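Need residues for this backbone.
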């Protein structure tokens, strides 16, 4: 972490030198000298931090901590200086003239002060290596930490080979699936990849199948290899050969340890040429493994199999050129998780049952594990030694501390730490930053990307936007099982994600040690804690000021609330003094109606401002001074008009400001925001959603060809020509939302001849004379949403062949009485319809083969389920909202249409009670629900 911090810092100093030359002036040489010194340290730190937790000396640990703290001090000094000089140069030309004349002595004083401070830092930098050398004790010879750690991991993993059947829980279905792939008739050798986070049971499952007697009889020879993070291919080949010869009871080749890579490959090929073999590569970290090893594994068409376990999804896809199966290990379901916990925690009790008096506490502990078998076993082992209610309560009340500091959990923590240590340094920052969100918090992917960008975690890559690079970081963390996807959009991209509780505890523990960030945890003295980033979960008895006093070094402040309601008399006002803040995230915070002008005017360094779902009614004029702002999120606030100064924010990339009234199923379900003249000056803007179409807004949009997302409300019929002309220029557009002023207005967009080629989401709200013909050309379209279109023409023939369409939403979009899905929709997974005139739906055989979800809402004339619904074999969800009672009765148990829907696992009927409350009943088969 320390080398990562310095590497990012070096990048920032270089950027400052290049971009702020006029401000730095006399201190430029000092800044460059610090840059050179820090670069010379970086190479040592990259080695030191990899070993910092174990075999590194205390002198080294102190040295690394000193360099980290120094890096932070340099960052503060440079940021404070840039902040001060920009404060002096703020305002108009006359104001700048006054500052240059009246305040020139003060400017010189500030330059002298910062130069003195930087010179002092340089001396400290030079002294740190000398101090380290002076107190360094010669290290004893022996194995490195990497060697010891690799051996420990190998021994721990291979202990799974000796687990007894009665110790295993929840393995039956997984074993059946894996056995089927191993024993099928496919002649080519096949790679079966088991993917999951550390401790999810991948190795245990593989070992159970590997030891199965029927499996042993089916393969002539077998080999189990635990692949370390730093494997050597020659050593791996030698281990394979030894394992094969041992299981076949053959005599090993002479002088095996002296064989070269080429000789080892030849031995493997000769030995396996006529044998059916099984290989397990356990705990694979490197995507290059298969490329390196496959040359030695012959495809002899004898139904040989390879099992590969990994935490990294990308590795499962790296075995190119062979048959493959990929199985994602899911958490244990609640019943099996409880059974496993009781086996460990109550092993000395009759039938290993939980005593009634411990049940609520046991469930609290188990909840923390989130179905992760290794965690259940580890925590269950700790609790097995606790005999009294007092001991159990103490552990439960300090569960976070137990997870980070209890020696009995060291093995478990080391397993998780392997995943963190394997991350590239930029991903380490991104991962740790996620721990600022509360437990089980569902984090929006775009929100996370904006936060990472604001903090400077995203590498500059020529030809690729920062958003695209950040998204690749997110996908990598998900692929490595470091983040869990909660919801994906129709294209399969993560929409929201979360951290496993135990992964979060790991991140919090590391962050605190590195002063990277802190989460409020009942400690009042946060000032001495020295964290650069802070998240606060406010409750009625907490105040923001109590947690932030004296923390001028903060770069990120995220505030969450729990059990709070808006109260004008509340003392929870925003504190000031955070002049170096880059991130201020107040989403859903109910106690703020106004941003203090003096607060905003001091936040020159701010990159990210999130006020979503707060009670704020207007932005202060001083918003124009946030020159570095990249993201401004004011969605679902009371702000109706943006101040004129918003056009001065030249670095703004994301401007999010639509409002969603409560009446979500009415025509006007989105309201836009008025924007000032000359919005087109914001030439870095990527996202603009949603603005009100008035004045020359439509023409301005035509010059903002860099936009990737745009939403426009109150589009008028007379805007049609200009709108079509503007949209044709926007070749980078991925998302388009258009809405007319009221439900009687027509949306005139037929004149588009070449629509945005990259468009993935298209939302049209308003009357359409006919289906726009250009829609059928949108080869990248994933989601089509037509609302209040009231088309007389059938839309389905125009969109059935769209190759990427995954979600279709039709809300009062068609006035016909019958709708027939005759062909196509090969990628559609979700279909939502609310068509009041509709009387019948027909689905022909083979259409929508991948449909997983069907939602029908207020189709008041639809008395029967869609004809052909029984052919939708992948349908998992059928939701019926305020539908005719005749339809509901027909699919209840014993109803005439019940056989047509019996294959659907989840069927829900939503209805309004006489009091108007929306209620839900399940119509699913009890055996599948």
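Answer:
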């Amino acid at each position: 972490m320390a080398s990562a911090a310095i590497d990012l810092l070096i990048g920032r100093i270089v950027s400052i030198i290049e971009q702020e030359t006029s401000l730095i002036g006399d201190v430029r040489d000092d800044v460059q000298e610090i840059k050179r010194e820090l670069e010379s340290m970086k190479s040592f730190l990259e080695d030191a931090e990899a070993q910092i937790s174990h075999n590194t000396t205390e002198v080294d640990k102190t040295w690394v901590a000193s360099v980290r703290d120094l890096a932070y001090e340099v960052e503060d000094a440079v940021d404070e200086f840039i902040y001060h000089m920009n404060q002096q140069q703020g305002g108009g030309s006359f104001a700048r003239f006054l500052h240059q004349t009246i305040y020139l002595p003060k400017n010189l004083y500030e330059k002298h002060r910062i130069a003195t401070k930087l010179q002092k830092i340089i001396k400290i930098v030079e002294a740190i290596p000398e101090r380290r050398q002076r107190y360094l004790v010669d290290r004893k010879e022996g194995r490195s930490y990497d060697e010891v750690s690799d051996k420990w991991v190998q021994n721990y993993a291979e202990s799974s080979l000796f687990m007894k059947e009665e110790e295993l829980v929840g393995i039956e279905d997984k074993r059946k699936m894996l056995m089927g792939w191993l024993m099928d008739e496919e002649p080519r050798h096949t790679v079966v990849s088991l993917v999951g986070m550390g401790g999810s049971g991948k190795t245990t499952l593989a070992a159970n199948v590997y030891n199965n007697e029927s499996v042993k009889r089916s393969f002539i020879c077998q080999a189990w290899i635990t692949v370390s993070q730093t494997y050597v291919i020659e050593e791996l080949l030698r281990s394979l050969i030894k394992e094969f010869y041992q299981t076949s009871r053959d005599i090993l080749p002479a002088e095996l340890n002296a064989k070269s890579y080429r000789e080892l490959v030849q031995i493997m090929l000769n030995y396996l040429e006529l044998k059916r073999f099984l290989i397990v590569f356990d705990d694979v970290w490197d995507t290059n493994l298969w490329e390196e090893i496959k040359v030695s594994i012959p495809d002899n068409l004898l139904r040989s199999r390879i099992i590969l376990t990994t935490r990294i999804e990308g590795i499962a896809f790296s075995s190119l050129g062979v048959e493959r199966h990929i199985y994602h290990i899911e958490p244990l379901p609640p019943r099996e998780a409880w059974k496993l916990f009781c086996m460990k925690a109550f092993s000395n009790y009759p039938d290993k049952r939980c005593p009634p008096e411990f049940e609520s506490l046991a469930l609290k502990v188990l909840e923390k594990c989130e179905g992760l078998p290794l965690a259940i076993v580890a925590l269950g082992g700790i609790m097995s030694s606790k005999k009294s209610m007092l001991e159990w309560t103490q552990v439960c009340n300090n569960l976070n501390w137990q997870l980070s500091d209890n020696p009995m959990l060291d093995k478990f923590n080391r397993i998780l730490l392997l995943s963190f240590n394997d991350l590239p340094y930029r991903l380490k920052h991104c991962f740790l930053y996620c721990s600022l969100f509360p437990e089980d918090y569902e984090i929006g992917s775009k929100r996370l990307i904006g936060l990472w960008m604001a903090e400077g975690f995203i590498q500059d890559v020529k030809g690729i936007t920062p958003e695209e690079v950040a998204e690749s970081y997110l996908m990598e963390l998900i692929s490595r099982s470091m983040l869990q996807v909660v919801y994906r959009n129709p294209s399969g991209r993560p929409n929201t994600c979360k951290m496993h509780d135990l992964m979060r505890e790991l991140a919090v523990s590391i962050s605190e040690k590195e002063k990277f960030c802190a989460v409020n945890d009942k400690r009042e003295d946060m000032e001495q804690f020295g964290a650069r980033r802070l998240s606060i979960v406010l409750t009625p008895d907490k105040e923001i000021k109590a947690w932030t006093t004296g923390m001028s070094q903060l770069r990120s402040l995220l505030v969450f609330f729990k059990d709070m309601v808006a109260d004008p008399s509340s003392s929870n006002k925003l504190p000031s003094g955070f002049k170096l803040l880059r991130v201020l995230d107040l989403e859903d915070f109910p106690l703020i109606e106004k941003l203090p002008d003096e607060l905003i005017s001091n936040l020159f360094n701010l990159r990210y401002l999130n006020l979503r779902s707060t009670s704020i009614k207007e932005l202060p004029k001083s918003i124009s001074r946030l020159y570095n702002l990249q993201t401004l999120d004011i969605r679902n606030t009371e702000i109706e008009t943006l101040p004129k100064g918003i056009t001065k924010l030249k670095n703004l990339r994301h401007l999010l400001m639509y409002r969603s009234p409560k009446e979500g199923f009415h025509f006007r379900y989105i309201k836009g925001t008025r924007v000032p003249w000359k919005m087109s000056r914001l030439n870095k803007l990527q996202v603009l959603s949603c603005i009100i179409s008035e004045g020359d807004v439509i023409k301005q949009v035509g010059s903002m060809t860099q936009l990737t997302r745009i939403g426009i409300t109150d589009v008028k019929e007379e805007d049609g020509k200009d709108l079509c002309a503007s949209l044709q220029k926007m070749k980078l557009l991925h998302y388009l939302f258009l809405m007319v002023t009221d439900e009687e207005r027509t949306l005139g967009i037929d004149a588009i001849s070449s629509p945005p080629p990259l468009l993935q989401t298209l939302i049209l709200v308003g009357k359409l004379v006919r289906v726009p013909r250009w829609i059928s050309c949108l080869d990248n379209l994933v989601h089509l949403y037509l609302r209040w279109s009231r088309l007389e023409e059938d839309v389905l023939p125009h969109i059935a062949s769209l190759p990427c369409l995954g979600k279709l939403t039709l809300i009062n979009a068609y006035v016909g009485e019958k709708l027939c899905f005759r062909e196509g929709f090969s990628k559609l997974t979700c279909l939502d319809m609310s068509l009041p005139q509709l009387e019948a739906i027909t689905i022909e055989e083979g259409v929508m083969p991948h449909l997983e979800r069907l939602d029908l809402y207020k189709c008041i004339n639809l008395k029967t389920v869609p004809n052909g619904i029984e052919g939708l074999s992948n349908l998992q969800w059928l939701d019926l909202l305020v539908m005719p009672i005749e339809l509901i009765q027909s699919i209840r148990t014993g109803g005439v249409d019940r056989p047509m829907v019996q294959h659907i696992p989840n069927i829900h009927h939503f209805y309004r009670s006489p009091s108007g409350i929306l209620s839900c009943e399940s119509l699913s088969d009890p055996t599948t629900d």
